[in-house]
Amino acid sequence: MLGVAMRLLRRRALAEEAVHDTFVQIWLKAASFDPSRGQARTWLYAILRNRALNILRDESRTDLVDDFGPMDLKAPGDDAETTVMRLSDSGALKRCLERLDPVRRRAILLAYVEGLSHGELAGRLGVPLGTAKSWIRRALLVLKECMA
């Protein structure tokens, strides 16, 4: 859900707020879910999408920052590998990312820099969904250990 919110809102703090608000709404309106109208997952993501769009419509949030460009590590047109190259050479994150197998590093970057879901990641990399999920999980464990 966070990946979807990130793609819509482009700012992690706002995306996290949207996901939080979504779960609060799900909790409050759980009784209104009607399985005959569709799957629960569809209902959940519709609530998230509506909350994210409401945040985007809220113009008072846009005056918090004059220029959104410097906040993004990713420049338009960059691929995931170019984003890693833009990290500081002395940074722990870059050092740890470079330790990963190139395929798993790409999976992590696509998921966390571009906000792809596991399903989108599997489609982009041409691997089964379970493989994409395990790559992400194992790579995160390696990164966690390396960063500690």
Q: Give the total of domains.
A: 2
Provide the CATH top-level class of the largest domain. Answer: Mainly Alpha
Derived structural class: mainly alpha
- What portion of residues belong to β-strands? under 5%
Quickly give the CATH architecture of the largest domain: Orthogonal Bundle
What is the overall silhouette? globular
Radius of gyration: 18 Å
Q: List the uncertain runs.
A: 59-77
What is the topology?
Blueprint lengths: L1 H8 L2 H17 L11 H18 L22 H6 L6 H8 L2 H11 L5 H8 L3 H19 L1
Helix pairs in contact: 1-2, 1-3, 2-3, 5-8, 6-8, 7-8
InterPro entries: RNA_pol_sigma-70-like, RNA_pol_sigma-70_dom, RNA_pol_sigma70_r2, RNA_pol_sigma70_r4_t2, RNA_pol_sigma_r2, RNA_pol_sigma_r3/r4-like, WH-like_DNA-bd_sf
Protein name: Sigma-70 family RNA polymerase sigma factor
Keywords: Sigma factor, Transcription, Transcription regulation
Written account of the structure:
This protein is an all-alpha fold. It folds into two domains: 2-67, Orthogonal Bundle (Rna Polymerase Sigma Factor, Chain: A), CATH 1.10.1740.10; 73-147, Orthogonal Bundle (Arc Repressor Mutant, subunit A). It contains eight helices and no strands. It has helices spanning 2-9, 12-28, 40-57, 80-85, 92-99, 102-112, 118-125, 129-147. It is globular, with a radius of gyration of 18 Å. The model is unreliable at 59-77 (pLDDT under 50). Pfam families: Sigma70_r2 (PF04542), Sigma70_r4_2 (PF08281). Residues 2-62 form the RNA polymerase sigma-70 region domain.
